[in-house]
Amino acid sequence: MKLLILGGAGAMGAHASPELIASGRFDQIVIADVDLAKARQLAVIWGLTPEAATALDAADEAALRRLMAGQPAVVVNALPKAFTLNVARAAMATANLRVIDLSSLSPELRALEAEARAAGVTYVAGCGSSSGLTNMMAKHGARQMTEIESIEISFASFRSIALSPASIHGVFWEFGPDSVRGYVAGGEYKQVELWAEAKEIEFPQPYGRLTVYAVPHSEPRTLSRNLGARRVIVRGTFTPKVMRLMRTLVEYGFFAPGPVTINSTDLARRELIWQYLAQVPEANQEPVWGYALHVEVTGLVSGQRLRRTLWTTHPSSEQPGWSGSDAWAKCVALPLVAGSLLLAEGNYTGTGIDAPEAFLPAMPFLTELETRGLRVHEEIEELGER
To answer: Which neighbouring-strand residues pair with 258?
Structure first.
């Protein structure tokens, strides 16, 4: 059984790759990365030969097709979001592949659904933390429900704003004023303003009680479609330090479209602050790192209204491999690992392009995570007859 990991030595791939290798479920593993020297070095550390690594320019669709022509059992895409459509098109040109991706299900990717079905491709999009694990927690919480009234997802993403170049843009997307954010109710998407739908959530320690806000995630659209939930919303927050910064940047107009002039040179406001954050050490410092998820599913089971509340915990920073930025990265990468292993063993259904809940079973997915230290807990509240 062959596994191909795209971006296998990158920020997320470097956390997913060793877990997939250690699973022992693959006969051959290929680590494709733009940094071949790093990929070869890591391959040896992880117990492979240097030849297991190969160079990849993900902007080259022909190169992606050549890699996939070896018919790997699973293609794991840990590349930045900018390359998602290239990977999807290459997979459909190859046909009959199983692909899993960290990047959320975008409208552009979803538009390739019919083409993927025709090619016999199963493309699991957005199998990170949120989206990804949140979808599977919601699916588990909705089990046996004949009617799903609501799914409310909350997350606390504790990392520095400048963990990587892409991470800055990620925070800008979540809490910038020009993103489209909202929720699904009654089959319609209801757009809301920045800082709307605020709610306080008691996350487990070391996170504590935090205020979360509506964010522009894909889960409302996919969970309402795939599970039939009448109302779905995703709220989130970053560290208090990051949230204070974003409020200040918005208040002082750093996301406005017009440029600012410095020494007779016009600079885009967003680019100015992005360059600053990418260079100063203060933007990459946080005392607590990790990821906490909280999902509430309310619906009917045998005529009774129930609310199932699910939440995650992970090992403390004193545990090997869970200190500093590793804790946050593992919370994102381990759901990608769990989904990859289910695809490899054939524990999935259907073809096309969709979110994890459309293809993968919830309980085996959560079990794979628990064996790696990322646990999902559940509490059930009976709300009486409807």
So the answer is: none
